[in-house]
Structures are given as structure tokens and as C-alpha cells.
């Protein structure tokens, strides 16, 4: 493992807990379910799909699944791409939008 990869892994250590993994999976599955169940209602509840929100939601859901199942990428760039900080922030924000 490279030094940079070890530093990124150390950065992710505070959220590398079972509670955050379960939260990540639950949020990911929730948004997938809402998106698949009624995409028009889901879109309306989060302010619509646009060129920014659509790729972000896809990336956040994929990232939450990677983190949630416990997969740990070896290379630093994959660790950053699938960072739980980003995915949990995006999915948390979308959850608040959806439920308000």
C-alpha cells in the first residue's frame, strides 16, 4: 500500500465503523427504492433531475454500496472516489429534501 493510500485510509478511519456502514447501505437502498418505485414523485420531491444531481445521485448510491458492504479499495484514487464522507453527505442531503 502506498503512503498516500495509507493516509487516505487513515482519513476514513473515523467512519470505518459498522454503524456508518449500515447507515450507508440503508440510505443507498432507500434512494434506489424511491427512484425505482416512482421516479417522477422522487424527482419532484428532490427538486428534479438535472445534469448535476443525476450523476451525483448515481455516484453517491454506488459509493454508498461500495463502502456499506465493506469493500476497501487499495489505491488512493479509488478510496477518494468512493469516499464515505461524500456519499453520506449527498445521500443525507437528498434524504432531508425527500422527507421535507
TrEMBL record:
This is Cyd operon protein YbgE. Keywords: Membrane, Transmembrane, Transmembrane helix. The chain crosses the membrane at residues 20-37, 49-70, 76-97. The keyword Transmembrane helix applies.
Amino acid at each position: 500500500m502506498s503512503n498516500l493510500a495509507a493516509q487516505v485510509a487513515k482519513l476514513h478511519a473515523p467512519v470505518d465503523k459498522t454503524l456508518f456502514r449500515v447507515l450507508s447501505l440503508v440510505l443507498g437502498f432507500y434512494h434506489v427504492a424511491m427512484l425505482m418505485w416512482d421516479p417522477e414523485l422522487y424527482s419532484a420531491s428532490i427538486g428534479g433531475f438535472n445534469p448535476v444531481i443525476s450523476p451525483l445521485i448515481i455516484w453517491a448510491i454506488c459509493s454508498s454500496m461500495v463502502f456499506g458492504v465493506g469493500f476497501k479499495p487499495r489505491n488512493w484514487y479509488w478510496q477518494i472516489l468512493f469516499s464515505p464522507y461524500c456519499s453520506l453527505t449527498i445521500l443525507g442531503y437528498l434524504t432531508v429534501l425527500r422527507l421535507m
